[in-house]
Amino acid sequence: MRLLMGVGVLMLWAMPALADVPPVIPRELLFGNPVRDDPTLSPDGEKLAWVAPDAKGVMQVWVRTLQGKDDTRAVTKEPERGVRYYEWAQDSRTLLYPQDSDGDENTHVYSADLSTGVVRDLTPFQGIRARLLESSPTAPREVLVTMNLRERTGSDIYRVSLDTGAITLDTQDPGDVMTWTADAKLNVRGALAQKPDGTTVLRVRDAVRAPWRTLLEVPLRENVFPQYMGFIGFSRDGARVYLKSPHGSNTSRVVEKVLRTGAEKVLAEDAGSDVMDVLFHPERKVVQAVAFTTDGHLRWTVLDPGVREDFEALGRVARGDFSLVSRDRADRRWVVAFEQDTAPLRYYTYDRSTRRAELLFSNQPSLDGVPLAEMKPFQLKSRDGLTLTGYLTRPVGAPQGPLPTVLLVHGGPWTRDTWRFNPEAQWLANRGYAVLQVNFRASAGLGKAFLNAGNRQWGRAMNDDLEDAVAWAVKEGQVDPARVAIMGSSYGGYAALAGAAFSPAVYRCAVDAFGISNLFTFLKSFPPQWQVIRGSYAQRVGDVDDPSEQERLRATSPVFAVDRIRVPMFVAQGANDPRVKQAESEQMVSALEKAGRDVTYVLYPDEGHGFYQPENNLDYHARVEAFLAQNLGGRLEPLPKEGRVPGSSAVVRQSSGAAKP
């Protein structure tokens, strides 16, 4: 894929002159399929698997033998919707992967047998949602899966035979479990549950037939977000358990707990970061290293002396933050990913005996050597004194001074922006925009005080933080205050709608992808598998059944404030989204049209919460690019002459109302 040197490239309005104008990066390189991605070693160390597109552009799992002849072959046969995640079974001959239907998130677990070529649905029940839980070398032809077969709001565990396909109920969900954990013998002994008031409960049992008992309870306001707390795993002898725990600390930390006595030892902690990653030995069942996000980067605390020299050697391999993504059972060979802001993701094989790394591949080699923009970290104080962190990405070659800017708001909202290769930030910077990303209050990974500062602050203080970031960047001379767009998906989409409705003087236009418009309908329409977390949403967002909350929820729902919107709007939605349902976008667009506002609405009938079909992802970004160029000015790679990306399912509705740029 060549870079576009002015051919077919438009520039709308007047952009600041760039000292050395970089070529336009084709959207295909940023939002199309990777060439290869996600490599993993088989447990026996003899084979390598990865995902890559087939001749029809559908992502499949591919495998080759590491020694001997090149026998590369695709082992999955998905007809339309590509494989996004997979893992090896412990028998080293079976690959396991989830797949849903057009983004509905009713995933089934499939197996691909390398010896027979047979691909089989291991969970062939209509309307269920299954997830792969765990496998073990002690039972290499069995896997544990979770499934809501018995009760749609539950998550029971089933034991599945890879030989016969037989499914046996193993552990029944009492109705409040979010995640399960098995020990080294594939016995389910840990459960993370949530009470109706949002309290998180960690339960254990000493044996399969022993009763469950509470190990730890953490009230919602004393907790971090679930992905930063919970079970890491049991020790090999099953006598101890390793946890990510916020108990007694503002941030989560890694602790070892003796099950018989309750004695606890802190293994790793960081005052400014929750636990971001843990290296847990799959055979020895010990914590080897823990990663925290410090000064915007992933920093490892090594606990196991046996890997200290390995981490030191890896730190010299390449620029960027690294993580171990796969290793063989003998622990002789690793696959390591290196991430940085100005290069695509690169994977290396690492030989522990020689401590040498060899480049395996880049997931998008056509971007190697392309001028990409640096993500520069920043800090600022919010209007009420909170420290906010974020990243500013300016176009390569841009002169000093204010630029048209896109405020790119992360989803969740209980996630965070990090230093990494961000395709959207690179795309926007390449088109001539400064890109502003801020970890507003409620962002996760920064400790429970910062997380809880966002409780019931949707459309209020969380919105103020975004405004404060824009004001800071304007004061710093980075941003043209007359040309700022707000853009995001999921919660970020809500923030875009809220920004246009509640801060109409700040933004020139807004881009919302599958964002919430009405907090009442959103909170009442949770999918069955989300019922267990309704209590935490009631605490963190609002309780739709509490009369005292009605006024606030209405005042912070953008759909009820369309009369205040004065800027052009772009709304995109997947028809099968189970999280933010199509009704959220439909009612917002209808209200905008009724109010005579300028709105473009794009519906993708074969998508859910995210645009995963590459044709749809490319189509969405092409349309957003044209919208931003029209309202902010910027370089533009036009849509194909047909008016859509070939193969896209886009259904477009356009209303030109009173709102003008």
Average pLDDT works out at 94
Strand ordering within the main sheet? 29-30-32-31-33-34-35-36-38
Q: Which fold name corresponds to the CATH topology of the domain at 10-29 and 368-655?
A: Rossmann fold
Question: N- to C-terminal separation?
Answer: 34 Å
Question: Overall 3D geometry?
Answer: globular
Name the CATH superfamily classification of the domain at 10-29 and 368-655: Alpha/Beta hydrolase fold, catalytic domain
Low-confidence stretches: 1-15
Approximate helicity band: 10-25%
Helix/sheet category: alpha+beta
Number of helical stretches of at least 4 residues: 11
Radius of gyration: 25 Å
- What's the CATH architecture name of the domain at 10-29 and 368-655? 3-Layer(aba) Sandwich
Q: Tell me the strand percentage band.
A: 25-35%
CATH class annotation of the domain at 10-29 and 368-655: Alpha Beta
* Biggest β-sheet strands, sense, barrel: 9 strands, mixed
Q: How many E strands?
A: 38
